[in-house]
Amino acid sequence: MVGNDVRVDWASRVVGGLVLAVGGWLASTLVKPEAFPGPWLSIGLAGVGLFLGFLVAPYVSVRPLWRGWQYLVSLPLPSLLVLIGGLLLGLLAGALVSIPLARLPGLYGTLVPLAITILLAVFGAALGVSKEEEIRGLFPETRLPAPDAGSGRDQMIVLDTSAIIDGRIADISQTGFLRGTMIIPRFVLDELRHVADSNDALRRNRGRRGLEMLNKLRKESLVPIQVLDVDMRDGMEVDSKLVSLAKSLNAPIVTTDFNLNRVAELQGVKALNINELANSLKPVVIPGEGMMVQVIQEGREPGQGVGFLDDGTMVVVEGGKRYLNSHVDVNITRVLQTAAGRIIFAQPKEGTRNGR
Fold first, then answer.
1. Mean pLDDT in the chain?
2. Taking the model in full, what pTM does it have?
3. How far apart are the first and last CA of the chain?
């Protein structure tokens, strides 16, 4: 509980104390006056009621209600529908059982049916939540529709914190290749703010960059952006919340996090990794082709020079040390694909003497 909840907590203590104090005073009137003469019994019971109400009122009123509300808000729509369905079935069963029990004499005819109805309602809701997957499997129409490739309006894409901080999603969104609505969950924004307020300078800069990229997305993106004001179950990490949300929305996750990529795939959620997209868009080079490269540093082997293409691809020039800090025409000899990326090996063209 945050913000004004402290005031609500104290208000519940005051109200609870007053209610139990009045209850204690009224309870004292049921005792025969000759057993406890004078007003001390009434004062004592009212004081006990005031103390107990002030002590326990938040724990039996506003706090359980707040946790229940947070739980309901955090539930995905299909889970909420299953819970409501189980609750209604429990109430229906309780109403049917209460019909014959209402004939019990005295207060039993009121209290017993009421208690059984409440118990069956709670049991029905709990049973519905526990059997959610089986119930949703029996009624496929309760699932959210899959994104329609022909209708960008219905498609949703969930953004990860790493993709926002990376920043390339802002440029991709301006190209027109993305269609649909980019979803930014509230807990992702909270994580960005937490990183931006970090005491560590590197984390703080990354968080602020992420917030800048968000502003850029909102102003320049050709794709609609929606902040989803929802949180998943308490205790879940951000990655788990993202996967759970994307699964409930039947939407892919845009990320640069390799671990999140693998976790999402294991749970049947499609992950769009920006790094994989960047690798796939690198220009194709074939051994025997020529190119111009600037040698900027020495290589690991004697005589080697190293340069980089605009996309970051490393070019190792055999015998290129003598062209250090110069541009040189080279012929590609082979291309090596590694887990870290692609490496191009080349040799200076014949007749090349001085770097240009």
1. 80
2. 0.46
3. 67
